[in-house]
Each structure stands twice: as C-alpha cells, then as structure tokens.
Amino acid sequence: MVRVIAKNFLKAENIEVAAPLFREMIAETVKEDGCIEYRLFVDNSDPTIHIFTEEWTTQEALDKHAASAHYARIIPQIRALCAKPGELSLSKEFK
C-alpha cells in the first residue's frame, strides 16, 4: 500500500476557480483501479491550502494514476492557480 499526501497552495483569488478542477480530479480518480482512497481537505487555519490524501494498492497503481489523461489535463491547470509549488509526501505503512 502507498499513501500520498499532496499539498496545494492556491492563490486566494483562485480558490473558487480551482474548486471544479478539484471536484473533477476526485470524480475521475476514485474510478481508477488500485485507488483505495482519494480525498481532499482544506486547512482549518488557511483556506488556500488544499491537501489531497491518497491511498493506493501499489506503486504501479499510483504510477498509472500519474500517467492518466485526466491527471495530465487537470494537474497543470491546478498548478497554474497556485502561489507556490506544492509539497508531495509518499509513504508506506509501518509494520
């Protein structure tokens, strides 16, 4: 299992512009093989920070997600709405 935490730092004026992109990304991604969980949260103290939490069955499933057509189309649009580059953390379960 692979866990992903991906933070996006939107410009304040782009929060509403990004919302439909985030919704579409979620709707498409949860249909993918190997996707266990794909959720988006907004930071309680800073509404410009949007945090995806993802859980994938394998690294291969995550790699296929990153190569998907919807990822290639939507993620660059989201990045263009951000104030700074995002942060990405990949982890595996402690045993």
What do these coordinates show?
With 95 residues, the chain is of the alpha+beta class. It has one domain: Alpha-Beta Plaits (2-Layer Sandwich), CATH 3.30.70.100. The chain is 37% helix and 37% strand. It contains 3 helices and 4 strands. The protein has helices spanning 15-29, 59-66, 69-80, and strands at 2-10, 35-42, 49-56, 82-91. The chain has a 4-stranded antiparallel β-sheet with strand order 2-3-1-4. The longest helix is centred in the first third of the chain and has 15 residues, at 15-29. It is globular, with a radius of gyration of 13 Å. The termini are close together. The relative contact order is 0.32. The mean pLDDT is 97.
